[in-house]
Design brief:
Helix content is 39%, strand content 11%. It is α/β, with parallel strands linked by helices. Strands 1-2-3-7-6 form a 5-stranded parallel sheet, sandwiched between helices. It has a two-stranded antiparallel sheet with strand order 4-5. Helix 9 links the parallel strand 6 and strand 7 (245-250). It is globular and about 50 Å long.
Length: 287
């Protein structure tokens, strides 16, 4: 397992190559599938679509400290689409926030890794999320609070495209521009699938870029599985002044496993033990 000392994470824009990020992301995807199969529940599809984004945030961009999760100068991350917690839990464990073996307690009644992030139970979780539309509003509040406190903290938030059907997402987006929150960067995990099917058929949010541009945001569209594009977009967000940034990341639900990719049924269903073996082989693990 690739390990870094906590000091590594305490500066932004760290010196890490894409090949290392790919190796970490592959291990995270394995963790996601093992966790959800062990629990026989969870949301593997969206967890795998957001994996490359979270790995880049935590290993390249964000300033944080696994030894001191409440370090005042840290950047903050909010997983507004809280149902994809397996991806976040794996990244936190691999950064050193808690032991890797704890991942197999996912969704256990007495465990610290609940189905949705719980700030009172899990080190590294900034706010409990799961009710869709809640997290982005909290991220706006954190960004405003950081400015009022004179902190040099960046606030990052990942939302889902199905989640963007919630009215509270747009209230928060309007407030973020009104308060000139240039320390806020939101990433839309745009895999175009939600539990009931394609987003554009259930309740279209398109054209997404133009909508956030109309709300006053700086908007970019990227391939959410291309580490060069993810890094470049996060770097560009650092240079934007007087407005928040929205990164529309085009992703693939179930990314990394052929029989899961672009299939809505894997939104909230775990693999069977037999399917897990097949998936892990695709991800390069000897089983």
């Amino acid at each position: 397992m690739i390990r870094f000392e906590p000091q590594f994470f305490m500066e932004r824009n760290r010196d890490i190559d894409n090949s290392t990020l790919r190796v970490i992301a592959r291990e995270v995807r394995k963790d996601i599938l093992k966790m959800t199969t062990n629990a026989n529940s969870g949301h593997p599809g969206g967890s795998m679509s957001v994996t490359d984004i979270l790995v880049t945030l935590y290993y390249y961009k964000m300033r944080h400290n696994p030894d001191n999760p409440h370090w005042e100068e840290r950047d903050r991350f909010v997983l507004s689409k809280g149902h994809v917690s397996p991806a976040l839990y794996s990244v936190l464990a691999r950064c050193g926030y808690f032991p890797l073996e704890n991942l197999m307690t996912f969704r256990k009644i007495d465990g610290s890794l609940q189905g949705h992030p719980d700030m009172l139970k899990t080190p590294g979780i900034e706010i409990s999320t799961g009710s869709l539309g809640l997290g982005i509003g909290a991220a706006v509040g954190m960004a405003l609070g950081s400015k009022l406190s004179g902190l040099d903290s960046k606030i990052y938030c990942v939302i889902g495209d199905g989640e963007a059907q919630e009215g509270s997402v747009w209230e928060a987006s309007m407030a973020a521009f009104h308060y000139n929150l240039d320390n806020l960067c939101v990433i839309l995990d745009n895999n175009n699938l939600q539990i009931d099917g394609p987003v554009d058929e259930v309740m279209s949010i398109y054209p997404a870029m133009e909508k956030w541009e109309a709300f006053g945001w700086h908007v970019m569209e990227i391939n959410g599985h291309d580490f060069d594009e993810i890094r470049a977009a996060l770097d560009e967000a650092d240079s934007i002044k007087y407005k928040p940034t929205m990164i529309v990341a085009k992703t693939v639900k179930g990314k990394g496993v052929s029989f899961m990719e672009n299939r809505a049924e894997w939104h909230g269903k775990a693999l069977s033990p037999e399917q897990l073996k097949e998936a892990l082989k695709e991800l390069g693990e000897l089983v």
